Please model this.
Amino acid sequence: MIYMIAIIIILILIIVFQNIKIHSISSNIEKVIKGNFNERIRIHDNNKIVKNLIINLNRLLDEFQKIVSQNKQYEEDRKKMISNISHDFRTPLTSMLGYVEMLKNDASLSHNERMEYLEVINIKGEVLRGLIEEFFSLAKFDSEDIALNPKRLNVTEIIRQCVLSFLKDFETKGIELALKLPNEDIFIEVDENAIYRILQNLIANSLKYGEGGKVIGVSLSEETHDIVIEIWDKGKGIPEEDIPYIFKRLYAVDKSRNSNLKGSGLGLTIVKKLVEKHSGTISVSSKPYEKTVFKVRLPKTHKS
Ligand code: ADP
Model:
């Protein structure tokens, strides 16, 4: 009889303790729901099932915290992007309208001055058009409304053609070209327009930002499953603290965003998206005036 009573008391105690633990787990979760995202369940239990439940609940909370902070970051990026877009669109537009106003109101302008103003309007208009096109491209990527058309192509030849299209710029800027292509042609499965755009963007950036180094390199090499394209320069490079952000939309290292070099800040975002659409990777390393290298790795076979 005494044994029975003891067992019943032990069972009641176990149930009470478990209830206290469940209550404590529930209040931990409630705290997280209320916004205390660092809260975790710190209860120990020897029961394997309860232990697993606690481990899994904590993993769920980790994931939840990750999603919350990603959303926060996304929201901040979005706000910054909208403010940058308005700035980038407004600046050339205001300038264009200013010149139009002068053309309309200033009868004393000479023919040459009028032509000069029209030329400025034209240039600003082109800048705006470029911006709108890049935004359009990015919007298409975001809505996944872009279909690649991968084919087996001679990537060695594509690189050669792309570099050729820049020869005049190399010449004008007095920049030496260090082109290192393998003797044999390398064929991989890629979308021709996409690979061309990736190369064009990276070479144009080296010309724009790295011209101080007076040499730009383009190289191609082959590994078992991938090909590796490197575009490098010896220019002023990218400060270490900016490197994690340069593939983000509208990020320009020059925060004043008013230099003539300034582009839309979308180029590298688009390049990264295109590389990733080919299941590839892009990375960058930079030692100012020694070497700034953009390294693109693409699988030889397109994985969709
Ligand atoms: P942008 O349209 O401003 O050129 P990108 O997305 O192409 O935008 O590049 C983002 C930023 O990365 C640039 O504003 C520039 O500051 C930096 N950057 C890109 N390539 C280079 C390079 N080769 N050398 C130094 N800085 C670079």
Summary: The helical segments are 2-33, 48-105, 111-142, 155-164, 167-173, 192-209, 267-277. The first strand starts at residue 151 and ends at 154. The radius of gyration is 29 Å.
